[in-house]
């Protein structure tokens, strides 16, 4: 099995390289044919090189899928002839966790990454109807090259090493003890690899000089799909962290968490640049389309090289230089093409008026890029300072709160007002009339929240969320069949409600203390009384369980059972918090320490407002993204085209060149 897996990975690398060469030859031929056509229609039938590229791309996917099937069969059967299986799996694990063990350590996670990349490349084999043949072939060549590169990287850190090889550290028990392990990493990897398509389209469009509105539509479609997948992956990861780690939070601004946030921010900015109702800013579009994958590769380097310290990071490996080389190559290719085509990109239309929808979108993408830069600096600066000066510095939530809060408030205001602006220059009187009803509703919400909760920041953010809700309602009433527009407003509403939940969560109460049986911990008006404390043995772990009675004032709320778990030789300890979910708050109890002999336990009691609303807002955001991606249809059922296709895409590309 070790030899078969290695052969399949080597075959995938060779097939990916062959496909890249074939697609590149096809792109060059299409460009020459377009130049020779001089305005006449050229053949759109696949050429020999295109057929070869498509075939080898699909065969590369088959080779990768074969390797994945081999390792999964070994994991399910617990075939310890592979050292990776012996390290990450166990014969007593449920089948679900044996399957998800594939991506619980460095080598297998790279194989999953390779599989997702190969799937994306194979899906792109069929040319989107809006894309010119030359641009499609060039982008397909880039995707095939990425398959070859990641196949080589996976070979370097192969999960098919035979038994007896030196083993790295075993995965955390957390990766073998929660159902989110089977969902969170695949969603993130699918979103990451989907962002390879905008990068490939940017490189292909620059190389063949086929940038334009049809190109932007394809970029938008793939970016929206990646954005939805990334949003779902990030939210599931945040919920997983909140539900099992016992610290009571869902986002710690950890460098590896930020590695998924930065591509999401860039994808959000790109969606606001290549949307159907925006004036195409080609320089912004190409730069953001390429930056998404570059940031993904940066996150891969940070996660798998040991450069940063993180509870999420994989152990230090020899892959650091290899991944850094991949990152550098992808960045240099993009920058070289941007410099070479700078005159083409500089030919965009002039900047839109400030008081217009285009002006709001321009400000939006600038601010999103600024937020990305702040997160990038906060994630990488400690590692840079440690490498240069040997000093350890920490960049945590307080720094991000100070630097990003003002920008986030402005972004929220733009999200509320921007969609109501006219596409071109806005007349102030007409704007005031249009903003009147939503502004009145926002003022009402601000006043009510300000009275109920005397906090200016929460009242202001709630008012902006009310403004977004009023705008969404107005749009839905006036244009009930505009599914894409409604989806955008639903996503905006979800983000606005999420902002309210985040700010409200800062008004929670937390208390931590050691109490005997019968003792109580109080947070605000909520108390947690330790009723009993027991310890038991389970397969592969020891568990201490506390029975805790919750009460609000004199009113009992019920009993919860937080746990403390020791794994292996008891060197690894994880908390199992108990969470009472209520409509407007969560009561979160963590067992931090236990001494059954003495009858004492250390409890942390946290009461956090509006956590349920946070998860609901994330669901709304994802649903809005899905709705925005559903193509509109005519009454007869045929897909609607926003603009008619060019009679000869190749001739148009040649004229532009």
UniProtKB/TrEMBL annotation:
It is a multi-pass membrane protein. Belongs to the CcmF/CycK/Ccl1/NrfE/CcsA family. It is found in: Cell inner membrane. Residues 1-24 form the signal peptide. Residues 633-657 are annotated as: Disordered. Required for the biogenesis of c-type cytochromes. Possible subunit of a heme lyase. InterPro entries: CcmF_C, Cyt_c_assembly, Cyt_c_biogenesis, Cyt_c_biogenesis_CcmF. Keywords: Cell inner membrane, Cell membrane, Cytochrome c-type biogenesis, Membrane, Signal, Transmembrane, Transmembrane helix. Pfam families: CcmF_C, Cytochrom_C_asm. The chain crosses the membrane at residues 57-76, 110-125, 137-157, 187-207, 219-240, 260-276, 283-302, 322-339, 366-385, 405-423, 435-453, 459-477, 489-509, 613-632. This is Cytochrome c-type biogenesis CcmF C-terminal domain-containing protein. It comes from Georgenia halophila. Residues 103-305 form the Cytochrome c assembly protein domain. Its main location: membrane. Residues 327-628 form the Cytochrome c-type biogenesis protein CcmF C-terminal domain.
């Amino acid at each position: 099995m070790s030899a078969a897996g290695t052969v399949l990975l080597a075959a995938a690398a060779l097939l990916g390289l062959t496909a890249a060469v074939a697609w590149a030859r096809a792109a060059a031929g299409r460009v020459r044919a377009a130049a020779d056509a001089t305005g006449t229609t050229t053949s759109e039938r696949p050429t020999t090189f295109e057929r070869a590229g498509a075939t080898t791309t699909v065969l590369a996917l088959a080779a990768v899928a074969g390797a994945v099937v081999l390792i999964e069969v070994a994991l399910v059967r617990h075939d310890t002839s592979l050292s990776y299986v012996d390290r990450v799996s166990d014969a007593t694990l449920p089948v679900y966790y044996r399957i998800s063990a594939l991506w619980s350590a460095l080598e297998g996670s790279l194989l999953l990454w390779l599989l997702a990349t190969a799937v994306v490349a194979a899906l792109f084999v069929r040319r989107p109807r809006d894309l010119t043949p030359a641009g499609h072939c060039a982008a397909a060549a880039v995707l095939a090259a990425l398959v070859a590169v990641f196949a080589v990287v996976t070979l370097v850190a192969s999960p098919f090493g035979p038994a007896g090889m030196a083993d790295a550290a075993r995965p955390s028990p957390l990766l073998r003890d929660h159902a989110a392990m089977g969902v969170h990493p695949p969603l993130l990897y699918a979103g990451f690899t989907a962002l390879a398509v905008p990068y490939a389209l940017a490189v292909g469009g620059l190389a063949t000089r086929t940038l334009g509105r049809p190109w932007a539509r394809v970029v938008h479609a793939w970016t929206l799909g990646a954005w939805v997948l990334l949003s779902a992956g990030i939210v599931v990861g945040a919920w997983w962290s909140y539900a099992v780690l016992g610290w009571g939070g869902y986002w710690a601004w950890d460098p590896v968490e930020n590695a998924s946030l930065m591509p999401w921010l860039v994808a959000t900015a790109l969606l606001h640049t290549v949307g159907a109702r925006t004036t195409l800013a080609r320089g912004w579009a190409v730069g953001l389309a390429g930056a998404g994958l570059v940031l993904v590769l940066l996150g891969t380097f940070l996660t798998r090289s040991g450069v940063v310290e993180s509870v999420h990071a994989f152990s230090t490996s020899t892959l650091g230089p290899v991944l850094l080389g991949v990152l550098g190559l992808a960045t240099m290719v993009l920058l070289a093409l941007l410099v070479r085509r700078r005159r083409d990109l500089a030919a965009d239309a002039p900047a839109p008026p400030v008081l217009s929808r285009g002006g709001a979108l321009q400000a939006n993408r600038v601010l999103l890029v600024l937020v990305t830069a702040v997160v990038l600096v906060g994630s990488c600066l400690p590692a840079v300072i440690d490498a240069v000066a040997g000093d350890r510095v920490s960049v945590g939530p307080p720094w991000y709160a100070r630097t990003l809060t003002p920008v986030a408030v402005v972004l929220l205001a733009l999200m509320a007002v921007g969609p109501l602006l006219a596409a071109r220059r806005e007349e102030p009187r007409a704007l005031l009339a249009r903003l009147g009803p939503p502004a009145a509703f926002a003022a009402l919400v601000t006043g009510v929240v300000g009275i109920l909760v005397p906090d200016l920041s929460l009242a202001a953010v709630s008012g902006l969320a009310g403004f977004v809700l009023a705008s969404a309602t107005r749009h839905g009433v006036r244009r009930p069949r505009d599914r894409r527009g409604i989806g955008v407003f639903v996503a905006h509403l979800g983000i606005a409600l999420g902002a309210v939940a985040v700010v409200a969560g800062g008004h929670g109460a937390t208390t931590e203390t050691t109490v005997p049986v019968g003792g109580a911990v109080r947070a605000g008006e909520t108390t947690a009384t330790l009723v009993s404390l027991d310890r038991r043995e389970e397969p592969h772990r020891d568990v201490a369980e506390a029975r805790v009675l919750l009460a609000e004032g004199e009113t009992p709320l019920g009993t919860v059972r937080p746990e403390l778990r020791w794994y292996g030789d008891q060197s690894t300890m994880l908390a199992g918090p108990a969470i009472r979910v209520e409509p407007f708050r969560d009561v979160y109890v963590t067992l931090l320490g236990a001494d059954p002999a003495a009858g004492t336990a250390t409890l942390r009691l946290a009461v956090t407002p509006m956590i349920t609303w946070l998860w609901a807002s994330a669901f709304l955001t994802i649903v809005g993204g899905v709705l925005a991606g559903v193509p509109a249809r005519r009454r007869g059922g045929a897909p609607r085209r926003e603009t008619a296709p060019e009679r000869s895409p190749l001739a148009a590309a040649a004229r532009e060149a």
